[in-house]
Every structure is written in C-alpha cells, then in structure tokens.
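Re: the request from the purification team.
They wanted to know what the chain is likely to look like in 3D before they choose a buffer screen. I agreed to run a prediction and write the result into the notebook, where they can find it.
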Amino acid sequence: MDSPSYEYTLDNNEPVLNDDLSITDPITITLPCKSGNHTLLVNAVDLAGNTMDAKTISFTIENEPYYPPVPLPNYYSVIIPEIEGVSFSSGNGSFDVAEDYAFGFYLYVNEGYMQNSKPVVLANGEEIVSREVDGKYIIKHVTTDTTIEVTGIVKDHSTANTEIENSIKIWSLNSILSIYVPRPLQGYLIDLSGNIIKVVHLSAGENSIIGVPSGLLILKLEGMPGRKIVIE
C-alpha cells in the first residue's frame, strides 16, 4: 500500500512534497504569502496510489495592515548644580525628563544662610515661583535642556542668630501651634519622615498656626537647627 501524499507549487516556485500523512489527517497547507495575487497548484496521491487531477487555485491576499511606528519621546536634561547655601530634594546632578513633562523639587536654605536669604529660583534665567500650598518648585513643561540657578542667598551672622534663637517661644494647645519670634522668619513643619507638611511665614510677635496634625513634628526656622515639637 502506498503512503498518501500531496505536492503543491506556489507561484511557479519549487514544488513542496509532504508524504508524512496519516489516513485520517485533514490536510492543512500553510503558505508563505505576501499581499497580492497568487496561484497554487496541488497534486495528491491516495492510499491506492491513484493520482488526482491537479487542482489550480487562484487567490488574492489583501494589503497587510499598516501599523505606524510609535515615536519615541525626546528627552531633555534638567541640570541642578551644587549651589552654596541651599540644597534640593532631588539632589544635584542632571535629570532626564521626557519632552513636555513636568519636573519638580523642593528647595531648602541651609543652616548658616537663613537669616537674610531670599531665594529666587531661575530656570534658564527665568524665575519660577514655588507652589503656595507646599512650597514646591515646578517646571510645568520641559521643552529644552534647562539649568537651575538660585540667587539671593546670603550667609548669616552667627551672633545675631543666637540672640534670635534664644528669644523664640513655641507652645501648642488644642491643635493650634503658637510661635513667638522677634522678627519675621520663614520656617518649615516637617514630619519624622522628612516630608514638609507646611511652610510657615512668621511675622514679628506671636503667630498662631491652625490645622497642624497632632503628634511629633520638627519645626525648622531660618538659620536655626530643627526643634522637635509635640502638637496636642
């Protein structure tokens, strides 16, 4: 008994023979076709050795779907150099930012520079203003390489700072934080994880700050070490 087989020729290419068939196998032919018109010629031999009449099949494959390439975003560098008297939540260095995305950071005036410093933050020479709710500086749309600068940083006089620090009074009652300072000062309320939860602008005299979460916090005032405070 002969083995069943078939042979096909696609578009006048070399014939392809398959004689590894079982009696019950359905015949499936996978053709390496591209889009366009094609002709398939098929010959088959059955178990008895009979050769069937050649069959010619013409068919057309429509154009393959087009998938346009996805453009990769452009990236630009935001450069934060080391600047005397200040530090940044992001650290210093060069940061890659996708085009039109935002980049943000917190600015901290360092110990010894808080008394008379009035920082002005510039991005490629243009001033950016900190967000009022939390003091964060944000470049909303990065569209070019950007360098950060900070002006207005002045070194403190240590004697004056000591006198101010000794006259400051801090107390809390019913979730209200009260702070007495002899001159206007800026400060930060910081949780134990190092996150700024509130920026405070203090006038000379007694200041009351409401809405402060209860628990242990750190109050960091200009030119002075942080103080641990308990909000009751």
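For the purification team: The CA atoms of residues 47 and 62 lie 37 Å apart.
Please add any questions underneath this entry.
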